[in-house]
Amino acid sequence: MATPLRRHAIVACLVGVLATAFADAAPQPALPPEVLTALERAKVPAEALSVVVQDVAGLPPELAWRGGQSVNPASLMKLVTTFAALDLLGPAWAWSTPVWLLGSVRTPGPDGVLEGNLVIKGSGDPKLVLERIWLLLRRVRQTGVREIHGDIVLDRSAFADAGQSPADFDGEPLRPYNAQADALLLNYKSLLLTFTPDPARGVASVAADPPLAGLRVDASVPLVTAACDNWRGALKLDASDPARIRLQGNYAASCGEKTWPQAYAEPASYNARLIEALWREAGGALTGSVRDGPAPTTRPSFEVASPPLADVVRDINKYSNNVMAQQLFLTLGLQIKGAGTADAAREAVRAWLTAKLGERAVDIVIDTGSGLSRESRVSADALALLLQRAWASTVMPEYISSLPVSGLDGTLRRSAAMASAKVVGRAHLKTGSLRDVAAVAGYVLAANGRRFVLVAIVNHANANAARPALDALVEWALAPRAAAAPRR
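Below the sequence we write its predicted structure tokens.
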């Protein structure tokens, strides 16, 4: 029997086939010449591109090319997840992480002893980063506890264990973007290696943050006089051993200080290693261990609130953070359907999409909340309609401000095309990229003051070579044009 996801995929594919048949029967509007030229250079056929450029008010499209085709949107799926969350939960909504001091505190004060366990329960907070974990543990110290005669217990039960591995998507388990969701997601389960040249010693020193109990990192690599080209390629990094990160090769002095993010080789032990290291670093002592276990049902000793949802959504969309998007996706299942599972999240978002888009919701096949998937599907038409709904919604300011600004920040900061005088600052666009997908969607402000929704998705083996075609579409949409006649 087909799963719900497969059934949705089958329906979407049938709809896409019918839409394509009708599209082939009717004449298609011509793509702008500069877009066709860029596609030709990339060796990508025009049929691999889906485009909608339409006024935010829903006037007839300025450009609609294969808009009904069901395609893989890559990270554009985050536009669905984040709008759903803002609309369903509200921009000020926040996660709460409760903490219990179970037992009595003997001799309260700077050297107090907790005769019992410290318990921390996760609720899906995507922003329990290093500084916030440190503040949580400092709060424990402020209660008068220095030594714990018991265990530190971590409750991760709010999200069901999906039994997945970071290697499942593309066989790259040490890439931070493959980190898996966790009800108690600490620091994205990642490490940041910092390389700092020390010419006096002839080495580049290596520091790892955060500290993990039981992990040793090679302290330095040889320093060489060379151009700073492919500095990562000059290093041979082996992070596959949970107890040791080994470094060989050399580092060019001309690179200055650089950082290299890494996922941890043994994600199941990351939380325990991090909490133990930070607790001891803060001057705390522990007689037991850090382990997983259930939290009590009693009132917690204190709770730690996350930043508001609007801030979290901004991080997700500006930097296309996959694990944060998946945390938010599962949170929707937990908050709306009462279960922190992917199925509950899909059900919650599916119902919301149906309410927003009606029959057009069938064009959207939801696999993960991040778009890091080969199964996700959307049509440019459906995504354009969703962006129009967002423009007319009460959460429009928070939603649009979460998107990268052309040439200024997020994933568009380093784009030379987006930094041109004609484009910089005039577009709020989410990007998407997989091995065979290149995409962009959001809002552009034309030179004549008109605001357009833009959706452009390429599905092809050479998709990422077609980025200049997407850039050309953005420039075309920014060019001034007269308003189209309203629908009657």
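Residues 6-28 have pLDDT under 50 and may be disordered.
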